[in-house]
Amino acid sequence: EPEVTQTPSHQVTQMGQEVILRCVPISNHLYFYWYRQILGQKVEFLVSFYNNEISEKSEIFDDQFSVERPDGSNFTLKIRSTKLEDSAMYFCASNTERASASTDTQYFGPGTRLTVL
Amino acid sequence: RKEVEQDPGPFNVPEGATVAFNCTYSNSASQSFFWYRQDCRKEPKLLMSVYSSGNEDGRFTAQLNRASQYISLLIRDSKLSDSATYLCVVLPQGGYNKLIFGAGTRLAVHP
Q1: Number of other residues whose CB lies within 10 A of the CB of residue A11
Q2: What is the nearest CA distance from A14 to chain B, expressed in angstroms?
């Protein structure tokens, strides 16, 4: 069964450093997402991406964050200057092969645990 | 008011018990509804979509009441493997597929 993959599984970084979290969505999916979950809290939407551009972003997704689809398979989340409060689990998700059916089920990757020291 | 609210739990039940989870949502224009399951430190996994007419998948039954903005999940004949956090998830209308998650209800099934 196709699945979303994410690397690394755990990333430890110093405050102020840049990190890039990587995701490989399900092949032929058209919509891509990043969510985060701070330990003990709910899953929160960060950004959605379609047709090589951001379609929506939350208030969490400020200028320190960026997303990119550098090739036909990878989808990345970059945090330019990490803060302590960026420590969380970051989940990538993707859905649907059909451009007109974006409400199809989203499939989540296993997540990257980011620890900012 | 929170966008999606759930019973906080935890629910501790014996194997074989029936347990029900409730959820309310604030945006009356929300268009799709789901229950996801999340095991400790793992990704959310879709358990089932929730349809207006109600739907069942084996031991799991989901109900939606749009007038009351209320969603429920019933688990019959609980198994040890059902122990997890159950997330009520809503897709707002026109939200470019931004899923809104509830905080989750933790279920612990014991022998």
Answers
A1: 17
A2: 22
Reduce the DSSP state of residue A101 to 3 states and report it: coil
SS (H, E, C) A10-76: EEEECCCCCEEEEEECCCCCCEEEEEEECCCCCEEEEEEEECCEEEEECCCCCCCEEEECCCCCCEE
Residues of B in Cβ contact (< 8 Å) with A48 = 96-98
> Which chain A residues are closer than 8 Å to B96 by Cβ?
48, 50, 55-56, 102
pLDDT number for residue A100:
61
**Number of Cα atoms under 13 Å in the Cβ half of residue A81:** 4
Q: Name the minimum distance, in Å, from the CA of A74 to any CA of chain B.
A: 19
Measured CA to CA, the distance from residue A41 to residue B49 in angstroms comes to 23
Report which of residues A99 and B57 the model is more confident about.
B57
Determine the residue of chain A that is closest to B43 in CA distance. A110
Q: Quick one: average pLDDT of A87-108?
A: 82
Residue B111 pLDDT = 95
